[in-house]
Design a protein that fits this description.
By secondary structure, the chain is α/β, with parallel strands linked by helices. It has a single domain, classed as TIM Barrel, CATH 3.20.20. Helices cover 28% and strands 22% of the residues. It is built from 10 helices and 14 strands. The chain has helices at 8-17, 67-75, 98-102, 105-121, 147-163, 186-190, 230-239, 281-288, 321-334, 351-356, and strands at residues 27-32, 48-57, 60-62, 85-91, 126-130, 170-175, 195-198, 247-252, 254-259, 274-280, 295-299, 304-309, 314-317, 338-342. The strands form 2 sheets. The chain has an 8-stranded parallel barrel with strand order 1-2-4-5-6-7-8-14, surrounded by 5 helices. Strands 10-9-13-12-11 form a 5-stranded antiparallel β-sheet.
């Protein structure tokens, strides 16, 4: 359970200076890949901002040529927000090199030492590993059954290298659920990670046969028995022995569109003709939610909204402030570590970030 402790110094600050005590009992972790509008980020609502992405090149963790300037803009946010931590994420969908680096002692050491140097060189506070996914090659990357053993070895080497740096540098991992995590020895990985970023979104996408709530918290009454949901992902990691305080449930700042959808049940968990696209939250508000023939619906079982256009047979699944509030309530009920979201630039006006942060700045 998370508890809020007020030190004597903070108490004096409250009494004498009138400053507000922190009231949020969970942490907010966000990814950022597009840094064009960093000046519009309300970093006071964020505990950790994860820059995406560094890559693995010949077993070493490296930044792409343009990335150093982008990362510097994120790190600069700490000047006005000293408590903000900036983490570098390595990997992402289709990012190769992990299986190869993890497969040997030399590769793991090169990965770990280069990661530690990268953090030190760019004044970052931690590393996030987004290997999608150990033991799986769906994204077109190299994979091996040995990834299950080698992944925690890679984490162990990285943890040792980070511990050699001054201060504590965090080590986290972005992970999926269900069968996508069968290539991960979760208890072994847990020994080295500060927390797990649960990618509890993209449950339904261009690779799945039906529409559905791509970021649903609970199962819909219409969902198949094996449907992936946020609560089931949390249960899977808890059952594997991960402390609740190390689990961060994921929120999507974008929607997924499906076209040519079977009209039964307003398109919920129905076959579709063609996958459409991903739609950022500002565009969802401006063009789709209760606009241009789309009507917003709420699935009370799943605690998820969706938009349905009956005339065109178009279904859109997304997160909004209501579904995010439900996830925040779930985090508090389950005493989870916090909420993670993808991705900062998809919510320029901060509507969804305010919901993630409980609608209160610190």
């Amino acid at each position: 359970m998370h508890k809020v402790f007020i030190t004597l110094g903070l108490l004096a600050c409250i009494v004498l200076a009138g400053c507000a005590a922190p009231t949020r009992d969970y942490r907010v972790v966000g990814y950022i890949s597009d840094t064009e509008h960093t000046d519009r980020i309300d970093a006071s609502r964020i505990d950790t901002l994860i820059y995406a992405f560094a890559q693995v090149d010949h077993d070493a963790v490296v930044l792409l040529p343009y990335a150093a300037d982008s990362l510097a803009k994120v790190v600069a946010l700490k000047k006005a927000n000293p408590s903000l931590r900036v983490v570098i994420s390595v990997g992402g969908w289709t990012a190769d090199g992990f299986s190869q680096a993890a497969s040997s002692v030399e590769g793991r050491q090169r990965f770990a030492s280069s990661a530690a140097k990268l953090l030190a060189d760019h004044y970052a506070d931690g590393l996030d590993i987004d290997w999608e996914y150990p033991g799986h090659g769906e994204s077109g990357i190299a994979s091996s059954p040995a990834d299950r053993v080698n992944f925690p070895l890679l984490l162990a080497a990285t943890r040792k290298a980070l511990d050699a740096l001054p201060g504590h540098h965090t080590l986290s991992a972005a992970v999926a659920d269900g069968a996508f995590v069968d290539g991960v020895d979760i208890p072994a990985a847990n020994r080295y990670l500060d927390w797990f970023n649960l990618m509890t979104y993209d449950f339904n996408n261009s690779l799945t046969p039906t529409t559905g709530h791509h970021s649903g918290l609970h199962p819909s009454a219409l969902a198949p028995a094996d449907a992936r949901t946020g609560d089931r992902a949390v249960a899977q990691f808890l059952a594997a022995g991960v402390p609740a305080s190390k689990l961060f449930i994921g929120v999507a700042f974008y929607g997924r569109q499906f076209n040519g959808v079977n009209p039964e049940a307003n398109g919920v968990y129905q076959r579709y003709g063609k996958y459409g696209t991903e739609i950022p939250w500002p565009e969802l508000k401006a063009k789709y939610i209760d606009k241009n023939g789309f009507k917003r619906y709420w699935d009370a079982d799943a605690q998820a909204p969706y938009a349905w256009n009956a005339s065109t047979g178009t279904f859109i699944s997304y997160d909004d402030p209501q579904s995010i509030a439900a996830k925040v309530a779930f985090v508090r009920k389950m005493h989870l570590g916090g909420v993670m979201y993808w991705e900062q630039s998809l919510d320029i006006d901060g509507d969804l970030l305010r919901a993630v942060a409980g609608d209160k700045a610190r």
